[in-house]
Amino acid sequence: MIKTKLCELLGIDYPIIQGGMAWIATGELAAAVSKAGGLGIIGAGNAPADIVREEIKKVKAETDKPFGVNVMLLSPFVDEVMEVVIEEKVPVVTTGAGNPGKYIERLKEIGAKIIPVVPSVALAKRMARLDVDAIIAEGNEAGGHIGQLTTMPLIPQIVDAVDIPVIAAGGVADGRGLAAALSLGAVGAQIGTRFICAQECIAHKNYKKAVIKAKDRDAIVTARSTGHPVRNLKNKLTRKIDKLEKEGAPKEKIEELGIGRLQRAVIDGDVVEGTVMAGQVAGMVNKIESASEIINDIMASAEDVMKNICQSII
Ligand code: TUI
Q: Does residue 105 share a domain with residue 71?
């Protein structure tokens, strides 16, 4: 059984964190992942604080195991969401799209573990100075808003630059990916895209089908010209955005086109004109399974991979 420092740090059985995907990672998914021995995470995204509280309550009603909330720091509701996270004594807080510095003291007071997501060495170093518990290093293979570096060069450079545990994200969907992440010096992996296709995930069936249908080159990056590139599955909307970018449309116009589109895909099932965020591993996700089947498969195969590597050395 593969246990790492991440299991100790968070009180979980397996070194797997589920990505805190906006709209997709609700209390249902987070509870299922935590019950299965990973760390389930609620993706707060741009949701108002009362909605986030409801999701937290759903997890607490299902399990006493540790879980987390991902706070998207660009959310207009970020201060209220942090208040709810503190009131509800959420055990683990991951953050994205910014610097969680001003919230750290109060999160520490409730004993929360704080784990910022970063896409670069410079940001990892800055976060490590803030007394955070670990860092999630997210490569460009990931879905959603992404940085420039891919996971393979990003993880070892961050591992060398900070003296806190590093969790790999972006491009991991199975046991091979987890074993690779551990080989690069990470203490575990954050996995998003594969959990979209968990039975317990509330994403619309059209969204799940789109992920399952996706091939290796379908998870493309759009909106580069805005300075906030997004990895999502190719569709009518991404073609429209590409066309506007080629025509040199102002970034405000492209940003405006993206508003409400994730909800449209995840909740309404409009995978043609909605934003279908997914990582490059979408091509490796081929079926709907329970969260516990996903985790058991990843762990069993990671062990096999690591044994086979040892055996193949002559
Ligand atoms: O946050 C992400 N990926 C996301 S967030 C998201 S939410 C959303 N998007 C569109 C519509 C509705 C909801 C979708 N995907 N990844 C983590 C991440 N964090 N990537 C990059 C960063 C980051 C960027 C800057 C972290 C820190 C940072 O700091 C800048 C500073 O202020 O120091």
A: yes
How many folded domains does the chain comprise? 2
Residues 21 and 79 in one domain: yes
The pTM score is 0.97
- Residues 6 or more apart whose Cβ sits within 8 Å of residue 172: 151, 178, 180, 181, 189, 190, 191, 281
Which residue's entry shows tokens 């599955």?
A: 233
CA-nearest residue for atom 31, ligand 1, is 98
E strand spans, 126-281: 135-138, 144-145, 166-169, 188-191, 219-222, 230-233
Q: Judge if 174 and 51 occupy the same domain.
A: yes
3-state secondary structure of 295: helix
Indicate if 148 and 220 belong to the same structural domain: no
The pLDDT assigned to 314 comes to 83
Mean pLDDT of 141-147: 98
Q: Atom 5, ligand 1: which residue's CA is nearest?
A: 145
C-alpha distances out from residue 301 to 122, 195, 297, 304, Å: 33, 17, 6, 5
| Claim to verify: residue 12 and residue 155 sit in the same structural domain | yes
Please give the residue range of the domain that contains residue 166: 5-202+285-313
**Mean predicted confidence (pLDDT) in 193-210:** 98
Residues 113 and 232 in one domain: no
pLDDT confidence bin for 193, thresholds 50/70/90? very high
Tokens of 241: 């955005």
Predicted pLDDT at 104 = 97
pLDDT at 1: 85
Claim to verify: residue 88 and residue 184 sit in the same structural domain? yes
Closest CA to 209 of 136, 124, 118, 271: 271
Q: Are residues 12 and 59 in the same domain?
A: yes
Tokens at 118, concatenated: 């970063």
The domain that holds 128 is classified in CATH as 3.20.20.70
Ligand 1 neighbours (beta carbon < 6 A): 22, 45-46, 72, 96-99, 117-119, 123, 138, 144-145, 147, 262
